[in-house]
Amino acid sequence: MNTTWNRREFLQRASAATMAALAAGAPVSNILSSCKSISGPESSADTVILLWMAGGMAHTETFDPKLYTPFEKDMEGNRVLSTFKSVPTVLDGIHFSDGLQSIGKVMDKGTLIRSYVAADMGHILHSRHQYHWHTCYEPPQTVAAPHMGSWIAKELGPKNPVIPAFVDIGQRFTVGEAEELKAFHTAGFLGNEFGPFFIPDPSQGLESVRPPVGMDAKRFERRNQLYNELINNSPVGEFGSDYQRESLKRSMEQAYALLNSPESKAFDLSTEPKESYNIYNTGKFGLGCLLARRLTEQGARFISVTTEYEPFKGWDTHENGHTRLQEMKKQIDGPIAQLIKDLDKQGLLDRTMVVLASEFSRDMMVEGKPDAKVLEQVQQPDILSDLKFYGMHRHFTDGGSMLMFGGGIKKGFVYGKTADERPCKTIENPIKIDGVHQTIYHALGIAEDTQYEVEKRPFYTTPDGKGKAVMELLS
After folding, report:
1. What's the predicted TM-score (pTM) here?
2. 97 SS3 class
3. E-strand spans in 140-181?
4. Are 44 and 443 in contact (CB under 8 A)?
5. C-alpha span between 341 and 350 (Å, rounded)
6. How far is CA 265 from CA 262, 272, 350, in A?
7. 420: three-class secondary structure by DSSP
8. What SUPFAM superfamilies does the record tag this protein with (predicted)?
9. Over the stretch 209-256, which tens digit does the pLDDT of each residue have?
10. Does pLDDT of 22 surpass 50?
11. What is d(CA 108, CA 123) in angstroms, rounded to the nearest whole number?
12. Which residues are bridge partners to 452 per DSSP?
């Protein structure tokens, strides 16, 4: 693996993979069944909601707090492990960082993972680690690797034929590393019909499922017909296979069906009771959680809600880490807890798996991990002369936290452990991304050797089909 890829090289190879996916044509569907050595396990989940903390959420500042060290001018950065006090959760002996009390009160309904280890890919780029987390494949690839949500949409199909099986809420592609983010927000070789239905702003979700202002239904239908003609004359039409062309057309037909369905009202958050709406209304992410709940009620299969990745904002805390996290916690704490409570109250949590994760963690001193340090992208002082340097700044890949609820996940369970002293790395039960993916697929009843033939070789849900479910996480 080349450890020196820059953004330009990453994009060049991602674009090449996209064209390769077109040239490859349809995956050979009969290979899927004939090459499975085992049938899929009995499912415990029907739906997945991914709550994506984009930008690198520091585990020691959130769900795995260490010794609290208050700020002092000109203090040594190496003294700082956590910049927040720890507070008890509903689980005996388990504490979260201050500001996450609401989530702490619902941990009896889920599992806390404290041992996620991100991949070593050399010079750290957020988009590369996010690509890896969402597809399970390290970039770049010669094949356009499908997003986890696309695998699930393809293998299980829609629960409700008019609701998109894969919905992505909150990520714009007009900020930051836009093209790099697009590289993994795709169904890859599986075809456009299994790709994400994008809702950049949940407060305007209804706008995603109806014609633009001033366009009546007849004009929209004419545009739909024109769209089919454009496909035939597009690069997909010219260079793609029949499978790719038909997949693109089916994706438009699905959107057209949603437009005319009663279920489209689920996208209109103005119909939510005011009391409930106010709990979720902490910003785009909070309203995204509300929309995710409403879409789960209507039969969405996979929903991703992100705090949105934009360089040096959100969880990307290269400076003002402590003060930024105060605001981030306000955005996520109430809505996530309410989402879990609402799903549980409606009897949906048993079959809905909710996963909270981030691409990697952060540390004040170490870039990468202690035995595999990498080039720092932003210089951080070792002496903290200003409050803006107080917080977890550098990228840390040797430990991290995740939360999982519902869908067969154990309740009130803690898995893994990190060291209490720097470096706060994983010391018990490390879990890597192929284990995370395969645990989710196992709960959904998708066999671990699921594969398609692409470029005359099998392409699995996890690299070489070696991912194994972490059965200790499942009840």
Report:
1. 0.87
2. strand
3. 166-169
4. yes
5. 12
6. 6, 10, 25
7. coil
8. Alkaline phosphatase-like
9. 666 566 665 665 565 555 555 545 555 445 455 555 565 555 556 665
10. no
11. 38
12. 459
